[in-house]
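Bench notes, afternoon.
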Amino acid sequence: MPLGTRPHWPRLPRRLGGPGWRRSGTCAPAMASPRRFALELADYSLAHFALGEAEAAGARPDPRLCALLGPPGRSFALCVAAAAGGGCGARVQAARVHQQLQLQLRQGRPFQQCQLLRLLGYSPGDPAARPQHGFLLRDPGANPDTRSSLLDVLGACPEPARPQLGEFETDESGALRLWLWALRGGERQQVRCARVVPILEPPLHPVVPDLPGSVVFPDRDAARAVLEECTPFIQEAQAVLNLVDQCPKQVQKGKFPVIVIEGLDATGKTTVTRSISKELGAVLLQSPPSCMGQWRKIFDEEPSIIRRAFYSLGNYIVASEIAEESTRSPVIVDRYWHSTATYAIATELSGGLQHLPPAHNSVYQWPQDLLRPDLVVLLTVSPEERMQRLQGRGLEMTREESELEANSIFRQKVETSYLRMENPACHVVDASPSREEVLQTVTHLIRTTCY
C-alpha cells in the first residue's frame, strides 16, 4: 500500500483496548535502539530524555518537556529508522518516508489541531546506530481520532522504513512512560516500555557524526551513490549521473586564478560576479551549472539527502568546467561547495546556533577530491537590508530562501557555518555600501590575494 493511503481499519475507542488490540508486558525490541531522544522546543533549544536509563547526575526534569509529554493532552513520538545494514538505499528510503510523514502530519486530519515538533532518536556509544529523524505530535485535546489516524499512517508505510510509534502516558505515581505501538500480523499491539527520564545534553549534537553520510558528502562517490539509488523513481537522476560520468575524476586548475563569490540571496552576488568578471576578463560560471538548471525544481522537492547529493554533484561538474577555463583566463564562480555545505548543515541539525558543529570540525573541511579555488569571497549585508532588497526584486523565492526569511535562527546557522569553513576559508566583504565601493573592495582583495 503506498504511503499516504488510509487503510480502512476499525477506529479504536478512546480508552486503551478494543478489537484488534492487545497490550503486552514486555519491552519491544524495536525500542532497544534508539534509547535517547532530543526534542526541539519552540525556542530552538533541545530537551534530551532517555528510556529506562538512570537519570544523569545533575539532570533535572525540564518543566517544558513535562508539559509537552504529560496530561492534560496526549503526545506521540514517531521516528523513522533506516533498515539495518541497508546502506545508502536504506537512508534514501527512510528520508522519503520521513518527508511523506511530515506532509501527512501537517495536512492530514485530525492532525491540524496538533503541535508538531522535530524529534531525534540516537544511541550514543553505538557507531553502527544512525540517528533516527522523526516528530513529536502533541494533541492538546487528546482527540480519540488521533491515535487511530496515526496507526493508519503507520500501517501504510513500507515495512523496511516503517516509523516507530510511541505514546506517552503518566502512571499512577506521576512518572512518564513511553508505550510502543506495533503492527504484527495485522494486529495492533501496545508494548510497555521504560520510564522517561531526563538526561544531560551531550557535548556534540547527535547528528554531527552522521553528516558525511547523509548531507555533507566528503567526496564525489558518496554523493553519486545516493543518486544511483534514486534512478528507479526519479528519471532525471540518471541524466545527472550521465553528466557526472563525463567529467574526469581528477582535474587540476590552470595557471589563472579561480575566485568564488558566496553569500545569501540579495547580498549582491549577481552584480559583483558580472562586474568583476568583466573587469578581469574572466569567465563566469555558476553552481549548479546551467546544464543542470532544468532539474533544480525537481530535486528541490526531494528530501535533504537527495537534494544535497544533486547539488554536490553539480560542484564536480563545475570543477571540470573550471579546470578547462582556467587554462585560458581567470574564472569567477557564483557559489560553489561552501553554499552546498552550509545549507545542508543548517537544515539537518535541529536546535539553535549553539548546536552547530564546533569550529574546526571536519564537516567544515573542503573535500579532498574537489578542485579548490584560490579565493572565496563572502558577501554580507544586514538582515534588514537584505529584506528590502528581496522585496524590491519581486522574484519567487525558493523553499530555502523562504526559510531564511521566516526563520532567523536558520539564517544565523547558515551565516555562522559560512564563517567556520576552512581550507579555503571565506573572506568576508560588507556588501552594504554603494555598488562602486563593494566592487572596489572585492577587486582589491582579488588583486592582493591572487596576483
